[in-house]
Amino acid sequence: MPESFGVALLGAGRMGMEHARTMLGLAEARVLAVADPNTRAAEAAGGLLQAEAVYADPEEAIAHPGVEAVVIVTPTDTHARYIELAARAGKAIFCEKPVAKDLGETRRVLEAVEQRGVPFQIGFQRRYDPPYRQARDKIEAGEVGEVEQFIAVMRDPAPAPLEYLAGSGGIFIDQSIHDIDCARFLVGEVEEVHAWGAVRVDPRIGEIGDVDTTNLSLRFAGGALGVIQNSRRAVYGYDVRTEVFGSRGKLVMDATPKTPLWQYGGGVSADHYHFFMDRFKEAYRLELEAFFRSLSKGERPTPGGRDALESLRVAIAATRSLKEGRAVRLEEVG
Amino acid sequence: MPESFGVALLGAGRMGMEHARTMLGLAEARVLAVADPNTRAAEAAGGLLQAEAVYADPEEAIAHPGVEAVVIVTPTDTHARYIELAARAGKAIFCEKPVAKDLGETRRVLEAVEQRGVPFQIGFQRRYDPPYRQARDKIEAGEVGEVEQFIAVMRDPAPAPLEYLAGSGGIFIDQSIHDIDCARFLVGEVEEVHAWGAVRVDPRIGEIGDVDTTNLSLRFAGGALGVIQNSRRAVYGYDVRTEVFGSRGKLVMDATPKTPLWQYGGGVSADHYHFFMDRFKEAYRLELEAFFRSLSKGERPTPGGRDALESLRVAIAATRSLKEGRAVRLEEVG
Amino acid sequence: MPESFGVALLGAGRMGMEHARTMLGLAEARVLAVADPNTRAAEAAGGLLQAEAVYADPEEAIAHPGVEAVVIVTPTDTHARYIELAARAGKAIFCEKPVAKDLGETRRVLEAVEQRGVPFQIGFQRRYDPPYRQARDKIEAGEVGEVEQFIAVMRDPAPAPLEYLAGSGGIFIDQSIHDIDCARFLVGEVEEVHAWGAVRVDPRIGEIGDVDTTNLSLRFAGGALGVIQNSRRAVYGYDVRTEVFGSRGKLVMDATPKTPLWQYGGGVSADHYHFFMDRFKEAYRLELEAFFRSLSKGERPTPGGRDALESLRVAIAATRSLKEGRAVRLEEVG
Amino acid sequence: MPESFGVALLGAGRMGMEHARTMLGLAEARVLAVADPNTRAAEAAGGLLQAEAVYADPEEAIAHPGVEAVVIVTPTDTHARYIELAARAGKAIFCEKPVAKDLGETRRVLEAVEQRGVPFQIGFQRRYDPPYRQARDKIEAGEVGEVEQFIAVMRDPAPAPLEYLAGSGGIFIDQSIHDIDCARFLVGEVEEVHAWGAVRVDPRIGEIGDVDTTNLSLRFAGGALGVIQNSRRAVYGYDVRTEVFGSRGKLVMDATPKTPLWQYGGGVSADHYHFFMDRFKEAYRLELEAFFRSLSKGERPTPGGRDALESLRVAIAATRSLKEGRAVRLEEVG
After folding, report:
1. Can you give the residue ranges of every domain in chain B?
2. ipTM exceeding the 0.85 mark
3. CATH topology of domain B130-283+311-332
4. If 0-12 CB within 10 Å is exposed, 13-18 middle and 19+ buried, where does residue B90 land?
5. Residue of A nearest to B144 (CA)
6. Contact A191, A212 (CB under 8 A)
7. Which of A128, A250, A259 to mutate: most B Cβ within 10 Å?
8. pLDDT, tens digit, for every residue of B56-82?
């Protein structure tokens, strides 16, 4: 029987409930406390998890007796605060991305984590998605040789609400960062970026100073070239495809269709993923499982603070490139 | 918070552990007792599930206070006995297929279930596999029109041990029955069968009076023709593909590859499922979830006793056809 | 510059025009004469090919000066007559399948061919289709090991006109024979068959004593089991898929979709082949090219008379099995 | 019988022979003269085509009596000269891309074509490849809505010889131009480009001042963003994939595998195209067929001079962007 850890779940929204269901099936996680200002949501999660206590305020959940680890699924702009609180309280931390939208706060918070030496994992779930994980293994085993090119496409089914977008830090920091982290995971560090953006989906996105359609060129430290293309809308559903090309071959990660059922009748057709939580359901489960396994084994969970920080730096460079209309080297980003 | 049911898990082998993990994540199931003559296995499952008690004897687990439902994953030839005991004790029953290998015992046991009116579900998991379930919905919605042809192929990666095969009732009753049930699920009742078999994989399978390679023709009551082709060995892994063809189109269920990662280098390649539990992992979870949801809602779980019985009758007809070298009508089978 | 042969093209219908276009691009073939009772069709082909003469009567075309080879694409029931005439005149012969619908006439005609020693090729074009040809090479190279199972599915987009079907010899001799020949090509000789048929597409097909939906079980001399499933109608187009399974792996020949263009929007979709001449366009070209290459090199073209005869014997056995409701051994067929 | 045109084939290398075989099967084309300084090659083609005359000097072939159209497949740096000669002689012209590597010469030559009003088609064959052609039709029919993003990947199996590359005008003008023309064909005119390049394949390519690995960002006049990624080497063969994404859906053109034969054994695998002439074999035939059909009908063939010019302007802008390290607007290019 594996060791189990007392957990506080902070946030009981859609993703919080997903993590709740995962933890329900994980012998290593005993959720003792759930917190959400939406008390009905908190109680639903608490009931499902048979938690000892349900709070409106995440701070109280962190302080609940027996809590050894926190799973932070609160709104983005509260992440930094709860990471810091949890770190100071000596808890192990799993937090959805991002730590924070700006570099200064991200650095400050991650230093608090470092100082206390608490285990910390950031929710770049794609690193745990089986095709991506296998791709990484194959790349490390040399099966594609020297990496020369990288392509990532990711499109959301529909834009998030405008008020969310307005506070999101912009598309590179909010959306592209997943592909940026994936690029770093599969190819390595980025040295220079060049970004273009357009408003093609919704003019109101332009009015809040953001774009909804992007082209991001990457020059990797190892010499490879890459491109990330994102959109805030794809009418056919959630679209994610990644390609790593090298001197010995190519790897393509593309999970189309969703259901292995083909219908013949006026051609051939199949369905498509409609939502990222659907596409990465297994990855969300595996990342949390990995977090608790790391705690059990006393190993450092991954991806950690450095990945949170470095992927953010690339996203900030992209944002700057878009605004200044020029290529930006990563060394320019604080 | 959903109603939850006290459960006795009978059998803690590989499939028992799979069901244990599923129930760990199901709020509707509280496993109170686990039983397995292999006490280490029983204790491992009991620990994972935080069960109140662990027994060597399934009878004692059935009788454990608070148990309302039993999940039977014991060796095949004990199913009948525990179904009967659980039925007489008024418990809801989920049992791996088959009820029994012969018709008389199957009938007797299912009558006990009927008499007591306990909910009963047989583990034909494929009915819960998403492509198969969607195919059924599409067929019922008329999307393929009148069904005219059916093809099912299923091949195991390697034969089970000889001692298992010797007591399995033969390949039609042990293996083909999954495709038979699938045929009944998607197309309807079978009226006549014609079977051929060969020993191609292992001559010792012939020595115990069985075959390892089969061709089973089906004539459905609705007039369609079908074929089921099975083998005890496929070196590339577990192979399962089903096709339903009708006057308005065709549906194909085929989950190749396993991982959506394509490798280019001397051609294009991807991996393949290696094991049925791997291929149908989601189906095994969904069938058990459905069982408990049915209990919650007071609905009759499905597939139930009639499906267990009718699919067995087809398998018995196939066995007789193989032995007697002629087509056999279902009405000939008791 | 390759040697070129004077050719008489007998038949200028749809398939005749296909062969005409192929020969237009073949330096080895100079079509000198074209014959078709439909003189407008004959003249169209003759014009395209810049033939020296156009005839209504194929006999005259065979006798045209300089003709060394005949390509027979006339109605099925005239094949035997023109093969015999051409053979007696010492011409090399390419003939669409079948030689004849009954065994006696087929034997008689092929004996005439043998006696005169003229090169003879029968139009089982699938043997020249690239995936089938590569499959054969892989099987011969041992890449699937010992063959254990075979599955072939072929469905026409729509039934041919009733008057054609009435004179076609029945579905096994008219349609299934392509899959039968393919089975012999990929797996080897057939020892026993068991056939079932149904009328599902058009009741008038039943009224002329034929079926439109079939299940044909094959037992190969080498011990493998196979199944061929055919239908006279598939609303989504021409459907052909073949699978060879053996002790070391499996080969699947399946050319879906037709055009490598995928459309995303409410799922994923692509087109499908609509017609066998479309699907096997390349094979029709390659078989004729191979015929003339054989003539150039003085090699025996393939498939020849023996394949025409043996595949017909299997189709006749299938027809008998359907009528007599029992398995039929090939040795029973004359 | 269609009208036929007297043709001079200039160039009898690999691609010249491909066009020769196509014209052999085209009733509209009678090749009267073939020219190639390599007289053995010229004679081989002349023999195959039963041409009246074979020349070493293309000028003589243009002047051969009865020649109405020329097909120019000579080395790149001679295209301009023969286009001009043929135009002045009043011949219809089909010419492989490019007209010339610099804008001045291209303009001068195309003006000669315009002045004489001769039909002119440039060999951007991809416009005739069935998936690309269908995609264009679907885009024009509004099936993807407003185009928002474009991605094209094209990788050659191996770099051309260094001496060829040294005179090729650089990778954008020599290789990317096919994807550039495809972008213009499917999405529309380009307004601005930003290019990055790297030497990853062969350092000698860097020594001649070129790159072998590129990232080209496109901003279309209609507002869409695009990216073209090219490489001079892909060990698994010729790689070409194109994606057009819009407000109503997405189209993907990707012809993997080459042969519809799947091999199962240690996973699933299939082959891949090895060479562009192989991948676009049908397109090369269809483009030439279309050229002669246009002549027959008295229609203007397409793509014509304007497409040759505009695609070259984009490639020149890309080259400038790479050299100057900044985005370049098309209006800056002469």
Report:
1. 5-118, 130-283+311-332
2. yes
3. Dihydrodipicolinate Reductase; domain 2 (3.30.360)
4. exposed
5. A265
6. no
7. A259
8. 999 999 999 999 999 999 999 999 999
